[in-house]
Amino acid sequence: MMMPAGSVFIQNFGCRVNQAEAFDWAAEFHDKGWILEAEPARSALIVVNSCTLTSRADRDVRRFIRKVARENPRARIVVTGCLAERDPEGLNAMPGVWKVVPNADKPALPARCFENGLGRVSGFAAPSDPPGSYRARALVKVQDGCDMACAFCVIPSVRGRSASRPVKAVLSRIEGLVSSGYHEIILSGIHLCSYGRDLNPRSSLLELLTRIEALSGEFRVRLSSLDPRLLPFPFLDFLASSRRVVPHFHLSFQHGSDRILKAMGRESTAGGYRDLAGRFVRLSPEACLGSDFIVGFPGETERDFEATAALLEETPLAYAHVFSFSARPGTKAAEDRAVEPAKVKSRAVILRRLSGEKNLAYRRRFSGRMLPGIVIQRKPGGLEILTSNYLEVIVPDGRQPEGAAVLVRIATVGERSTTGEICDNETGRP
Known about the structure:
Elements: E1 6-12, H1 16-31, E2 34-36, E3 45-50, H2 55-71, E4 76-81, H3 82-86, H4 88-92, E5 97-100, H5 109-115, E6 138-144, H6 155-159, E7 163-164, H7 167-179, E8 184-189, H8 205-213, E9 220-223, H9 233-241, E10 248-254, H10 258-264, H11 270-283, E11 288-295, H12 302-314, E12 319-324, H13 341-364, E13 370-379, E14 382-387, E15 392-395, E16 405-413, E17 418-423
Parallel strand pairs: 1-2, 1-3, 3-4, 4-5, 6-8, 8-9, 10-11, 11-12
Antiparallel strand pairs: 6-7, 13-14, 13-16, 14-15, 16-17
Helix pairs in contact: 9-11, 12-13
């Protein structure tokens, strides 16, 4: 009797790189006949790709592990990722944890599970769902690690130095994914703008994207977070004119006060950020620009915070991801005196409210317009579509499959949601 080899649930925390790693694992498990479960309660194996960027991320990972161990006590839990790198002993001691895998061994994670006898059933048949069912869009990890030394960031200590995937390997991977039917490829990296600096011969993210531009097939490329310190104007010119790269750019500003940026070790200025954002929108007026901001960095005064709020308000950013400062073990900033928690909380509320107002204004610009997008998932209220310029649109009566490339007309724009209707790609009619 033919039967599946096993079942696996993959839980990601944190960044796009973790998502890209999980994307590859899902394909490898699938190729071995494993079923990719949608819920951890039904899975024999649970892979947790952890994050340790903040103390909240640490808590979320541990809370999830305890919950799974309680609700699915027979499951074997494998933990990897940055928290597993920073605190392997603590995670190993948690109930249900079968194995802790360091970041360096991530590429071999599925193989290590197979070698230990998990799911070995003779004569298994591969399940009918394709690996694309794990994600509607493909993720390709092109770079790992970071050579920067920001005072608040623990990631270089758990991810190591910058390491780039060879250009030919990236191109080959993208060609394979496009031939499998993916219409959007997300390029991910811990410090994506450092891509190629460690390669021999030396390369760059611009060179990689230029090579990707020349590939055949109908697909678009979305970039993960970009470091504004490493975005020269010729690179911006390319991004704005590219037929492949979607007009959505996430820029890691982190703060709007030059004094705090210096304390962070960022070697940048708010004036430089303003110039960068301004050039972006002059070249690509409808592009969606987003950024990260940290509130409550040690020593942050009210004046410093007001500079950050002004940067968000006065630049053409369409949204902001706001983080309350979290002291990370071993970082320079962890040694400094913390800002009063109540002040940090109130400042975060102000920035998030401002971000919401700016995002609403940006989305309203596209009311009645038709935009290209990808069907992300089916929800109770309809299809969720992500447009090229990063609008999340709900189509109540859509029937297209996940991963399909569509044209969507924006119908209504509210404070919390955007709705639309799918149109014919050739006629533009519903």
